[in-house]
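Sample intake sheet
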Amino acid sequence: MCISPSCEWLQKLVPLQEFTNDGPALHKAIDKFIGSKINMQTQAQQVESRLRNMAGGDYATQQAVLSGDTSGFNSTDAHGAPTNPTAAPMAALLLNIITTATIDANEVQGRPILAALRAAADQQKGLPGRKTIVYFTEGWNLTYALKDQFQALISAANRANVSFYIVDAGGLVTGRAQ
Protein backbone atom coordinates (compact mmCIF):
# COMPACT_ATOMS: atom_id res chain seq x y z
CA MET A 1 0.00 0.00 0.00
CA CYS A 2 1.45 3.30 -1.07
CA ILE A 3 0.76 6.26 1.21
CA SER A 4 3.00 8.74 -0.54
CA PRO A 5 1.32 11.54 -2.58
CA SER A 6 3.57 10.56 -5.51
CA CYS A 7 1.70 7.24 -5.74
CA GLU A 8 -1.70 8.87 -6.13
CA TRP A 9 -1.83 7.89 -9.81
CA LEU A 10 -1.59 4.23 -8.77
CA GLN A 11 -4.94 4.46 -7.00
CA LYS A 12 -6.56 5.77 -10.19
CA LEU A 13 -5.59 2.75 -12.30
CA VAL A 14 -8.63 0.73 -13.28
CA PRO A 15 -8.36 -2.60 -15.10
CA LEU A 16 -10.32 -2.95 -18.33
CA GLN A 17 -11.21 -6.51 -17.32
CA GLU A 18 -10.72 -8.36 -14.06
CA PHE A 19 -8.86 -11.68 -14.28
CA THR A 20 -11.03 -14.19 -16.11
CA ASN A 21 -10.92 -17.07 -18.55
CA ASP A 22 -14.10 -15.81 -20.25
CA GLY A 23 -12.98 -15.39 -23.88
CA PRO A 24 -15.75 -13.02 -25.03
CA ALA A 25 -15.17 -10.73 -22.03
CA LEU A 26 -11.45 -10.58 -22.82
CA HIS A 27 -12.12 -9.84 -26.50
CA LYS A 28 -14.51 -7.06 -25.47
CA ALA A 29 -11.82 -5.52 -23.21
CA ILE A 30 -9.22 -5.73 -25.98
CA ASP A 31 -11.61 -4.15 -28.49
CA LYS A 32 -12.34 -1.37 -26.00
CA PHE A 33 -8.61 -0.67 -25.57
CA ILE A 34 -7.78 -0.83 -29.28
CA GLY A 35 -10.81 1.27 -30.15
CA SER A 36 -9.75 4.04 -27.78
CA LYS A 37 -6.21 3.91 -29.17
CA ILE A 38 -7.45 4.19 -32.76
CA ASN A 39 -9.87 6.95 -31.74
CA MET A 40 -7.03 9.01 -30.23
CA GLN A 41 -4.91 8.51 -33.36
CA THR A 42 -7.84 9.52 -35.57
CA GLN A 43 -8.49 12.65 -33.52
CA ALA A 44 -4.82 13.62 -33.70
CA GLN A 45 -4.85 13.14 -37.48
CA GLN A 46 -7.99 15.26 -37.77
CA VAL A 47 -6.43 18.08 -35.76
CA GLU A 48 -3.26 17.95 -37.83
CA SER A 49 -5.27 17.93 -41.08
CA ARG A 50 -7.31 20.93 -39.93
CA LEU A 51 -4.13 22.80 -38.99
CA ARG A 52 -2.65 22.01 -42.41
CA ASN A 53 -5.73 23.43 -44.10
CA MET A 54 -5.62 26.54 -41.91
CA ALA A 55 -1.92 26.97 -42.68
CA GLY A 56 -2.52 26.96 -46.42
CA GLY A 57 -2.74 23.27 -47.25
CA ASP A 58 0.34 22.62 -49.37
CA TYR A 59 3.94 22.59 -48.21
CA ALA A 60 5.06 25.63 -50.23
CA THR A 61 2.24 27.78 -48.83
CA GLN A 62 2.98 26.60 -45.29
CA GLN A 63 6.64 27.54 -45.71
CA ALA A 64 5.64 30.98 -47.03
CA VAL A 65 3.39 31.48 -43.99
CA LEU A 66 6.17 30.38 -41.64
CA SER A 67 8.41 33.03 -43.21
CA GLY A 68 5.71 35.67 -42.62
CA ASP A 69 4.22 35.94 -46.13
CA THR A 70 0.40 35.89 -45.90
CA SER A 71 -0.18 37.78 -49.17
CA GLY A 72 -1.53 34.69 -50.94
CA PHE A 73 -4.53 34.31 -48.63
CA ASN A 74 -8.03 35.50 -49.47
CA SER A 75 -9.99 37.47 -46.92
CA THR A 76 -12.56 34.65 -46.56
CA ASP A 77 -12.27 30.94 -45.83
CA ALA A 78 -13.82 28.05 -47.79
CA HIS A 79 -17.17 28.72 -46.10
CA GLY A 80 -17.16 32.42 -46.91
CA ALA A 81 -16.38 33.52 -43.37
CA PRO A 82 -13.77 36.23 -42.90
CA THR A 83 -10.38 34.82 -42.02
CA ASN A 84 -8.33 35.87 -39.07
CA PRO A 85 -5.01 37.18 -40.43
CA THR A 86 -3.15 35.50 -37.57
CA ALA A 87 -4.88 32.10 -37.96
CA ALA A 88 -2.68 30.84 -40.80
CA PRO A 89 0.66 31.74 -39.18
CA MET A 90 -0.55 30.34 -35.84
CA ALA A 91 -1.65 27.09 -37.50
CA ALA A 92 1.72 26.83 -39.26
CA LEU A 93 3.48 27.44 -35.95
CA LEU A 94 1.41 24.72 -34.25
CA LEU A 95 2.19 22.30 -37.10
CA ASN A 96 5.87 23.06 -36.69
CA ILE A 97 5.60 22.39 -32.93
CA ILE A 98 3.76 19.09 -33.56
CA THR A 99 6.35 17.99 -36.12
CA THR A 100 9.28 18.88 -33.84
CA ALA A 101 7.65 17.17 -30.85
CA THR A 102 7.05 14.02 -32.90
CA ILE A 103 10.67 13.92 -34.06
CA ASP A 104 11.89 14.50 -30.49
CA ALA A 105 9.58 11.80 -29.11
CA ASN A 106 10.79 9.32 -31.73
CA GLU A 107 14.40 10.13 -30.86
CA VAL A 108 13.81 9.76 -27.11
CA GLN A 109 11.99 6.49 -27.76
CA GLY A 110 14.65 5.18 -30.16
CA ARG A 111 17.79 5.71 -28.07
CA PRO A 112 17.06 3.09 -25.37
CA ILE A 113 15.83 0.63 -27.99
CA LEU A 114 19.08 0.92 -29.92
CA ALA A 115 21.10 0.66 -26.71
CA ALA A 116 19.22 -2.50 -25.65
CA LEU A 117 19.64 -4.12 -29.06
CA ARG A 118 23.35 -3.29 -29.02
CA ALA A 119 23.71 -4.78 -25.52
CA ALA A 120 21.92 -7.92 -26.73
CA ALA A 121 24.28 -8.18 -29.70
CA ASP A 122 27.33 -7.62 -27.49
CA GLN A 123 26.18 -10.40 -25.14
CA GLN A 124 26.02 -12.84 -28.06
CA LYS A 125 29.59 -12.09 -29.17
CA GLY A 126 31.15 -14.95 -27.16
CA LEU A 127 28.81 -17.61 -28.58
CA PRO A 128 29.91 -19.54 -31.67
CA GLY A 129 28.08 -19.41 -35.00
CA ARG A 130 25.43 -17.22 -36.48
CA LYS A 131 22.90 -15.77 -34.01
CA THR A 132 19.44 -14.31 -34.54
CA ILE A 133 17.61 -11.76 -32.43
CA VAL A 134 13.91 -11.22 -33.09
CA TYR A 135 12.56 -7.92 -31.78
CA PHE A 136 8.79 -7.48 -31.52
CA THR A 137 7.53 -3.90 -31.49
CA GLU A 138 4.41 -1.89 -32.25
CA GLY A 139 6.26 0.56 -34.43
CA TRP A 140 9.73 1.99 -34.40
CA ASN A 141 10.69 5.30 -35.96
CA LEU A 142 14.35 6.05 -36.40
CA THR A 143 15.30 9.68 -36.84
CA TYR A 144 18.36 11.10 -38.54
CA ALA A 145 19.71 12.08 -35.11
CA LEU A 146 20.00 8.36 -34.28
CA LYS A 147 22.03 7.58 -37.42
CA ASP A 148 25.37 7.23 -35.59
CA GLN A 149 23.90 5.07 -32.84
CA PHE A 150 22.20 2.89 -35.48
CA GLN A 151 25.48 2.50 -37.39
CA ALA A 152 27.19 1.47 -34.13
CA LEU A 153 24.46 -1.15 -33.60
CA ILE A 154 25.01 -2.54 -37.11
CA SER A 155 28.78 -2.70 -36.54
CA ALA A 156 28.36 -4.45 -33.18
CA ALA A 157 25.92 -6.94 -34.70
CA ASN A 158 28.31 -7.70 -37.57
CA ARG A 159 31.22 -8.24 -35.16
CA ALA A 160 29.07 -10.56 -33.03
CA ASN A 161 27.71 -12.38 -36.12
CA VAL A 162 24.14 -11.45 -35.13
CA SER A 163 21.14 -10.87 -37.41
CA PHE A 164 18.20 -8.77 -36.27
CA TYR A 165 14.64 -9.36 -37.39
CA ILE A 166 12.22 -6.59 -36.44
CA VAL A 167 8.57 -7.69 -36.30
CA ASP A 168 5.75 -5.17 -36.12
CA ALA A 169 3.48 -6.82 -33.55
CA GLY A 170 0.80 -4.21 -34.19
CA GLY A 171 0.24 -5.63 -37.66
CA LEU A 172 -1.42 -3.71 -40.42
CA VAL A 173 -3.34 -0.77 -38.99
CA THR A 174 -6.46 0.22 -40.88
CA GLY A 175 -9.47 2.37 -40.16
CA ARG A 176 -11.97 0.74 -37.87
CA ALA A 177 -15.52 0.23 -39.13
CA GLN A 178 -17.94 2.23 -37.01
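Comment: The chain has one domain: 22-168. The chain is about 55% helix and 10% strand.
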